[in-house]
Specification:
By secondary structure, the protein is α/β, with parallel strands linked by helices. The chain has helices at about 25, 35-40, 60-65, 90-105, 120-130, 155-170, 180-190, 195-205, 230-240, 280-285, 285-304; strands at about 1-5, 10-15, 45, 70-75, 110-115, 135-140, 205-210, 215, 245-250, 270-275. The chain has eleven helices and ten strands. Helix 5 (about 120-130) crosses helix 9 (about 230-240).
Length: about 300
């Protein structure tokens, strides 16, 4: 796998690819393989969840690199990517704009998006706005963008503003950890996963000054959203998705993803499978998830 930096309009992202990108193309904001044969392959674009990074998909890379060009990005403020400007927060729709720019950088005409959690919601929103640009969606432990009733707007706005106020009042000192193992233990406890499952993710999410370890992610990520779409707005967006969609959920994950209002019933071509695992079920059941991605790809190829 290859590490690259991809410039966007207002920031720069860290990117992992299964192919060696043409250096001149990166300078032009493109991720184009050097090899002509690789340029003709379908592309899988991996989109990670909140407080995760591109390495959360590392266990899937080797089995899928035989068939696809793989691209995994760190969202702004995550992993090795740059943080947003100090006066800029992390609006959900800005992630969709980031994704649109990432997709513009790719040369593939056969593009599948694989999103986990936040990444799944962003992928679904993008596919609703730009249905012609995506041939397939794999949404892991996430479906439609989060929505709530219009009556909650005042409460949501107040909650979001107050979360920013609390952040401004906090001391600016970074949260220190005594060792990498301490950081790994924190994530294992929060995510209920093993050290081996989380080590690649935590290695990418931390840095050391030689004495202490620190998290790389932007502290502004912890601020609450100021606004969410209504159910009607989200439903209208999801109904515009044209490509086949596969929802993957863990048997110990978010149970609400099985409910009608989670968004599956609003899609034209959609199926859902349950695999062993929790919210990070692609780490609990990587082989099953890879098999399902390959099956969806085969289905899409038959439709083309």
């Amino acid at each position: 796998m290859y590490e690259s930096r991809l410039p966007l309009a207002d920031t720069e992202l860290a990117v992992i690819t299964s192919f060696s990108p043409c250096r001149e193309s990166i300078q032009r904001g493109k991720l184009i393989p050097i090899s002509d044969a690789e340029r003709r392959r379908p592309t899988l674009l991996f989109l990670h969840g909140w407080h995760d990074n591109a390495a959360s998909f590392a266990v899937l890379f080797e089995p899928l690199a035989v068939r696809f060009n793989l691209v995994a990005v760190d969202w702004p403020g995550h992993g090795l990517s740059a943080h947003r400007q100090t006066d800029n927060y992390y609006y959900f729709m800005d992630y969709v704009d980031d994704l649109a720019q990432i997709i513009q950088s790719l040369s593939s005409q056969n593009l599948m998006l694989v999103g986990h959690s936040l990444g799944a919601l962003v992928a679904a929103a993008y596919a609703g706005a730009f249905p012609e640009s995506v041939t397939g969606l794999v949404l892991i432990e996430g479906l439609a963008p989060l929505h709530e009733s219009a009556e909650r707007v005042p409460e949501r706005l107040r909650q979001g503003i107050e979360s920013r106020m609390r952040r401004r009042q906090r001391q600016s000192a970074e949260f220190k950890l005594d060792s990498f193992q301490a950081a790994l233990s924190v994530r294992c406890r929060v995510n209920r996963l093993t050290p081996d499952q989380l080590r690649p993710l935590v290695q990418r999410a931390t840095y050391t000054d030689g004495k202490h370890w620190y998290w790389r992610h932007d502290d502004k990520l912890r601020c609450d959203s100021l606004f969410r779409m209504t159910k009607e707005q989200v439903k209208a967006l999801m109904r515009q998705i044209e490509c086949p969609v596969l929802s993957v959920i863990g048997d110990k994950g978010f149970s609400y993803l099985k409910e009608p209002d989670a968004g599956l019933s609003w899609l034209r071509q959609a199926g859902q499978i349950v695999v062993p695992g929790g919210h990070h079920c692609h780490l609990d059941s990587p082989q099953l998830v890879c098999e399902q991605i390959l099956l969806l790809s085969s289905k899409i190829n038959k439709l083309v």
